Structures are given as structure tokens and as C-alpha cells.
Amino acid sequence: MRAGIFGVGHVHSESYVENLRAARGVEFVGAAETDRFMLADWTKRHHAFGYASDDELIAAGVDFGIVCSPTNAHLPTVERMAAAGVHVLCEKPLATNVDDAQRIVDVCAAAGVHLMTAFPMRFSPSLATGAEWIREGRIGEVLAITGTNRGHLPTGYAPWFADLKLAGGGAVMDHTVHLADVMRWWLGNEPDEVYAETNRILHPEVAVETGGLVTVGFESGVFATIDCSWSRPDNYPTWGGLEIEAVGTEGVFTVDAFAQRFDVWSNGQTSWVDWGSDTNQLMIDHFVGAVRGDHPVAVTGFDGLRATEVALAAYRSAERGQPVVV
Amino acid sequence: MTLRVGIVGAGNMAATHAAGWNEAGDRVTHILATGSTRAGSLAADLGAELSDSYEELLAAVDVVDICSPTDTHLGYVEVAAASGVSVVCEKPLGRTAKEAQEAVAICEAAGVLLLVAHVVRFFPEYSVARDRVVAGELGDVATVRLDRSTYFPVGDGSWFGDHERSGGVVLDLMIHDVDYARWVAGDVERVYARRAEPTGSGGHVLATLRHRGGALSHVQGSWAFPEGSFRTSLEIAGSEGLLTLHASEPFSALVPESDDVSAVPQPPTTLAESPYVTQMKHFSAVLHGLADPIVSATDAAAAVEVCEAILQSIDTCQAVTLGGAS
Ligand SMILES: NC(=O)c1ccc[n+]([C@@H]2O[C@H](COP(=O)([O-])OP(=O)(O)OC[C@H]3O[C@@H](n4cnc5c(N)ncnc54)[C@H](O)[C@@H]3O)[C@@H](O)[C@H]2O)c1
Questions:
Q1: Considering its fold, how many domains does chain B have in total?
Q2: For B151-158, what is the mean pLDDT?
Q3: Pocket test for ligand 1, best of B13, B28, B31, B171 (most atoms within 8 A of CB)
Q4: In this complex, is the C-beta atom of B255 within 8 Å of any C-beta atom belonging to chain A?
Q5: pTM for this predicted structure
């Protein structure tokens, strides 16, 4: 099975390339990128082939691809891939607006190609334990969930993360969707109301929100909060983290998805070195299996669409200062 | 000069305060408690007299310390002020914002001190964190996360469960962190909150505060945690840095579970001096004219006001904007 990376604008392309190379039965073909300088730099670092456009990579022959371009560029790439019958694993959030996200879902469905949203947290063993605990009622009925997915300012890799047009927003767009997806997965029902407050006190030099607190109401009456702030300083020992806690009528459990780490003091610096399961690898292996026909895609385009809707509703709420309906 | 202290109430807080006054070198000489089975033994332990009336108590003391249920606070403050006796009062200062503001105005007019026991300000982790903020180490405060999660308290006559008397988990428990949030991030402009109230628990609340300076606070207050648990946490992120509380206790042990659970939860502290004692020593110093109050009466009233807005948000399912700044 042949695979490519469409766009190297997203930092995850740096690890996905290694995951594709490690995936069984997969041949990594190369990466497409219209920015010549970025492509040259990326291919050199990864000893990979580069293609100047999506079409050239498609012409080289790929069965599936991972879309890693800036968020607003996902749709045209997915359209090209779908038209050529190439299966799509798309970076989150799917798009910067609901129409584009819906269109991504629709074109893949019409073309009959698999579409998966890149939510690696679905493959996290600790989060899967959480899902199981809720399914088995081990904390009784869930009352509320709190999640944090904070990171450092991601513009160090590429400035588009803080570009309203390319990313659709800042911290809210970047970090709301993972937890919104985990919560939908755990609860098995849909968000119907969102309240959000945002601010721009951290890194005031960027033109998008850097702090955000989102409250999500679910159809079942359960409510949840998501802290999506870019509140980890540059010298934080890692990129950030994801923690989530469920409070039920019979107990409480907490997941720190990146708790499996060493604290390492070396070269005058402190860093956290992760030794937990590689969720990106598990996600890609799963998608390869889906393309091979072994099983359905676990995290669909629809899941990506619903998570994107939560993030977009957060912006509407923040602007109005009141909760909004999703 | 040793202060003569009269305590109103003979429950959990009365006993805690009495121990603090002793450590401060003052003397609890009188106790007044209605409907208490513990008043006699507490008075005997302290060598104090049981007063027959409040007037009798006020005539015999330098300071009155109000440790009775919340809805009785204002009444006792009023009479003390009219008698020119300084007041220490447990939080919340009043059952409603109006009551709390009245208490402030009455004491101000009468020229008596009104010291409100927001004890969290005397917990070293909270005061040291605030010192870092004041020293500018974190830059401008952007996001604050505060959590106080425990089980449902059983007081004398279970008045805690009577919302009309205690104000429930928001006014009784969450107010600690509301006060702290104001202390580190300033006045609150707008609040949004959700509450779950499963049967048999005292409720679980998540609130978002937007401070006038733009900072956002996430505050969790819960009486729905499993019996025996008491968890607090604290994190402050600012434009120049991040402060997170290292969660582990300096002493830990694994022993078979005991069923020795205290009726009213108190946070675990492994400190040479209990923060409750630190608090009473501070009050004593203020009453002796040796220190300025760390908790101003207007701050105590403002915390009640924010809590009332949180309750209003819960009831109306809308964000609530607060009135004039204090
Ligand atoms: N700072 C803290 O950590 C903390 C902790 C718990 C409670 N509190 C606050 O302290 C106050 C007392 O709480 P507690 O835990 O001691 O409650 P409690 O139920 O243990 O004690 C209340 C006492 O007041 C007496 N009482 C009842 N009605 C009275 C009246 N009208 N006049 C005089 N006495 C009366 C009762 O007999 C009892 O002795 C409350 O305002 C509560 O919110 C603070």
C-alpha cells in the first residue's frame, strides 16, 4: 500500500512520516507541498521525495494520504484526493468553517473513499480505559467532565497556527476539538450548547485568542469544560498535555494522557520524555487496516465535523457573551 | 493585652477558631450557641462561660467571632457593631450579597473592625502563589484554575443541605476560590456556571469567571466527591510564566481503609502551623493594631456577590454580568 503526506505545514507531518515508514505493508512515497522552501527543508531532513503539488503526488500513485496542510487548505486537497480515489486521513480540525468541513465529508462519501479525522487520542490506552469505565457505569452516572488540552504557542513550527484566515482562529480552534471528540466518544451523545470566554493576554503579539475556556452542554444534560489555552511557556518541559476528569454519582476518575514520562535533567534543561504508547502510530495502523478492508474507520469525518462545530460555536459564544446552540 | 473573645456557635468552625485564638495568645471567654449539644463541652475545654444571651456575651468581650450558620451572620454582626464590638466572621459574610454589603456598611458606620475568615488566603500554597503574581513573575495573569472538591458536609442540624441557610456548594465551598480568584486576577466582570445535583449529594459546579482585566478563571466546587476525599488544586498562567502546584503530599502512607471520616471535610495539611491558626494570629495582630487586614470586608462582600451571580447563571442558564466594580 502506497501512502503520501499532503502538505507539510502541520508539525505532525514530522512524526507521521516516521509512523508511515513504520507501518506494516506501507510504502511511504513522499510529501507534496507548494511552498518550495518548506518542501526542500522537510524532504532533506526526512530523506524523502518531494512533490510540488497534490496532483504530482497523486500521479506518483498513492492509495491513501495524510492531509497536513494549514486548516483552510484541507478542502481543495481532499477534493483532489477523493476525485482520484485516494483515501483520506485528515488533520484536525477538518476545516475553518462548517461548510468546508461538511463538504470534506460529502466529497469523500460521494467518491467512496475512506475519510478519517486525525484524533490520535481515540487510540490512547488511558482514554480508552476511561471510555470503558463510563460504558460499564463504574462511576455511576456521569455528571460532569473537565478537560484541559494546553500547549505552548505553536507558531514556532509554522506561523499559520495563529493566522485567523489559515487556521480559522487560535487556541480554541487548535485545542478544543480533541477533547470535544473524546467527550462525544465517552458519553455517546452530542453537544447541544456551547459557552466560551477567550482572551489574548498570553503572547499578545499574535493576532488570535491565546486563552480560552469552553463549556459544552450535552443532550443528556451532562456538562463539560475544555481549557484550550496556549498557556504552556516556551521553557515548559514538553509541548503541553491533555488531562480529563469525569465526575459521576459513584466516583471520579482522572486521565493524564501523557503521564507516562520521565523527568529528565540534562544539558542544563529539564524535559519530559514520553515512554507511553505512540498514539499516532496506533491511529495510522488503524487507518491502514480500514483501507485494507479489515474494519470500519473508528473516527469518521462526521466525528471531525461535530468537533469542528463545537470549536466554531465557541467563537460565536465568545463574541456574544452568552451560550449558543450547536 | 490578651483579647477576650466571644464565639457564636459551637460547631466545627467554633472549635477550630478557638484553638487558633489560644495559639494567638488570646482567650475565648464566652460561647453562645443555640441548639448545640457540644457547646457545654467546648466551653469546658476552653474554660469559657456559656452566655445566656448575645447581649451578655457582647458586654463581656473585646471581639466576637461568629461561627454560626451562614444565614445568621448578618444579625450577629449588626448587634455587635451597635455595641461597638469588633467582629470576626466566618465566610460567607452573608447569605446574600445584600446582606454582606449591609454588614460592611454597618461596621464601617460603627467604626468596628470586620474580619472575614477567608482562610484560603492563609494556606501557604495560595499565599505564596499570590506573592509570585504580585512580584510580577508570571506577568499579566491570563488563566487561573482552581478546584475544591470534597464530599457533602454534615453540620450541627444539617443546615449545610438547606440552600436557604447555606447557599449550597457555591456559597459555602466555592466562595473560597472565588475570593482567591479575585485576589490574584481582580474584579469579576462576568460569570457562567453549570451545576449538577444528583440526589444525596450537595452538588457539583463548574464556573467560568471573566475578570475585568481580561483574565479567565475556571473554578470547580464539588460536594459530590466520594466520602473522605478532599482535593484542592491551583494553577496560574500569565504572559511571562506559569505556576502549577505540585500535587503530592510530603507524607503519604498506604494502610487499610479506616471508616473514620470527619463529618465536615477539611483539607489535609502537613504544616508546622495550621493555616487556621495562622489566620487567627493574623486577626489578633489586626485587632491589636499591629497589622492591616489581609482580607478586606469589601472583598468578602464582593466574593458573595460573585457567588450570587454564579447561582443566577445556574438558574437562568445564561452568563451573568456583574454590576459596578467594588
Ligand atoms: N473556613 C472554612 O474552612 C469553613 C469550613 C466549614 C464551615 N465554614 C463556615 O463556618 C460557619 C459555621 O460552620 P460549621 O462548620 O462550624 O457548622 P456547624 O454546623 O458545625 O456549627 C454551627 C454551630 O452554630 C450553632 N448555631 C446554629 N444556629 C445558631 C444561632 N442562630 N445562633 C448561634 N448559634 C447557632 C450550632 O449549634 C452549631 O454549634 C458557616 O458560615 C460555614 O460556612 C467555614
A1: 2
A2: 79
A3: B13
A4: no
A5: 0.94
